Amino acid sequence: MLRWIVAVWLLWAERAAGQALRYSSYLDPERRFHLAWDYNATHIQLEYTAATRGWLALGISPNGGMNQSDVIFAWIDDTTGLPHVQDRWIDVGSSGVNPTLDDKQDWTLVSGKQNTTHSIVRVARLLTTCDPRDRPFTNDTMRIIFAANPRDPAGEAAMIEQHSMRGTKSVVFFTDAFLTERAASILGGGSLLQMDVRVDNVPIPTGIDTSYHCKLIKLPEVNKKYHIIGVRPLIQRGNEHIVHHVVVYYCDSTVNDTVTPKEFECAGDNVDEEAMMNIAVHCHSNVLAVWAIGGSDMYFPPEAGLPLTPEMSDRFVMVEIHYDLSMRTDQADVQDSSGMSFILTEQLRPNDAAVLSTGTMDFNFLITIPPNVDDFVVSSYCHTQCTSMFPADGINIFQSFLHAHTHGRKIILRHIRDGKELPPIGKDDAYDFNYQESRNVQPYRTILPGDTLKLECTFSTAGMSKPAYGGFSSHDEMCLAYLTYYPATPLASCGTNVNFTNYYTTINYTLPAEYSLTDYRSIQIATKDFLNSQMQWDTTSVQTLQGFYNGDTSSECVTIDLNRTAIPTPPLEYTPYDDPATRMCPNLTPNQPSQRLQAEPPRKPAPTAANSTQHSVASITTAGGNLVSVIVILLLCVCQRI
């Protein structure tokens, strides 16, 4: 069997050696390092280019650092022109960085060359080698480290001179996000239109770490049905480091021209609570599109598109932008005009698509993650009563977007049918807050009426002396998944609410008698003060709280017209999924990565036309010019924001 796999790989490698690889990305903003790749069911090829005539290195890291990294080390000999490739492993000890040669050299050289400024090597390897000093290629977010030096090493076993350039980048290898000809291959030919929805010169506040800005935007009038088949982020150039996410919601008919205000703060210290209660609640249940930091364009498969119909003419969408200001050092006046661009076609797909959100529905202290823990799990359910709204032959999920904040370490969306867990719909065991990419679900996953979805987020507060809480700030937490699917159904969201009374019983705290249950701010201050300064956080209290989140809860189904159904939900019993990947290397004792991941700072994408600042007018355009123009009005959503 092994000989057959090797033979097939050699044939694939030989045929692919001279071919362009399908996926590619620059690794650094200066574009000195570039990575291209391709893969089949068993192997991966990498083509690594660096602006050097000396050695170049590319590694898979557990956390963005060098320790415990699996490294490709290469150079092109300046005298002979021959390429050299080595499989190495880095241990950082008291004597410093030690990139030692692996006993088993698993990377195979395909080709290598250099010119007067750059070196390039192409190598190939099994996706999973079962070598304890090789990290497998998986669907998880993978931290890539890269480095170079202007000089070749003195020999195969010579001491390696320290790098002169280095960096780190998160990459998901098995996604269409990095297809070199992605837009052309997915959108195809035909006449395409573009509809931009964006805010207009929003002043970015200073002195706070989180701002949510909301604005209502009126849809253009159309006289026939279109399908949205692509969504592109429009992030204002220069603001890439503060725009954390953009969400666009479709509002119900109660949001009309008479509604005011059209623009307001929708979370944080400056939240307009009246606008949230009177306006945003009429939009938040129907998500059109989601983008978050690190993400790229999103395209729909040929089977489906989001509908834009004459009945939707003159209705409002709501744009929500989360500005993460926690790392901002300047206090200069900054404005923003970010948003999203929707690509439309009049060549209708067979099905209408929709977005289903699932996860925790409490964005407050009721989600409490104890201090100094590495693996605290918060779960939520999309109940069988919710999925019973699906048609008899189910819905087909083709894209998933998993979301947590800075304490998130792992996210998995489980799929359970008749008491048996099926393969996960979405899974990331190395979640990176600064790299949130929608991922294709291949093959499409069918969810039948009566199935259950269970979303689990694993959080780490290692080194913290106080708990983390649910909330909207990047330092608060969420646990959400957005699923794009077809055919569209009335179900907009499903998830779990924490039982208020049982929560206080679990933490053994009684609110002062004078507090009204409607006095949310006072309740939050008193509860957090108790948990931060009086609660005895030890193994017993942590396990008790973990048991609470694993125990009885309440699920909720929300339809696009805001009908809500609450369902008491006991712990779900099911047979766990037996992942064949866990049996591939039965004798392997893996090197354990650090639990506290080192998130790389947000990177500014290369300038594109889509990043340029534009005025706040939403429009549908073709290459020939405007078809329809509409004034941008704004609003944000009350709930289910990321």
Overview of the molecule:
- The chain is mainly beta and 642 residues long.
- The chain folds into two domains: 2-174, Cellobiose dehydrogenase, cytochrome domain (Immunoglobulin-like, Sandwich), CATH 2.60.40; 182-512 and 543-569, Jelly Rolls (Sandwich).
- 10% of the residues lie in helices and 40% in strands.
- The protein contains seven helices and 39 strands.
- A hairpin with a 6-residue loop joins strand 5 (69-76) and strand 6 (83-93).
- Helix 5 (500-507) packs antiparallel against helix 7.
- It starts with a helix and ends in an 11-residue tail after the last strand.
Fold topology:
Blueprint (H helix, E strand, L loop, with lengths): L1 H15 L6 E4 L6 E7 L3 E8 L5 E6 L7 E8 L6 E11 L2 E6 L6 E7 L4 E8 L15 E7 L16 E7 L10 H6 L4 E7 L3 E2 L6 E9 L7 E9 L8 E8 L12 E5 L5 H6 L8 E6 L5 E2 L4 E5 L7 E9 L10 E2 L2 E7 L5 E2 L1 E7 L7 E2 L6 E7 L1 H4 L7 E9 L4 E10 L2 E9 L10 E9 L4 E8 L8 E2 L10 E7 L4 E7 L2 H8 L12 H14 L5 H12 L2 E7 L4 E6 L47 E6 L2 E7 L11
Parallel strand pairs: 20-24, 25-35
Antiparallel strand pairs: 1-2, 2-3, 3-9, 4-5, 4-10, 5-6, 6-7, 8-9, 10-11, 12-23, 12-38, 13-22, 14-17, 14-21, 15-19, 15-20, 15-23, 16-18, 16-21, 25-34, 26-33, 27-32, 28-31, 28-34, 29-30, 29-32, 35-36, 36-37, 38-39
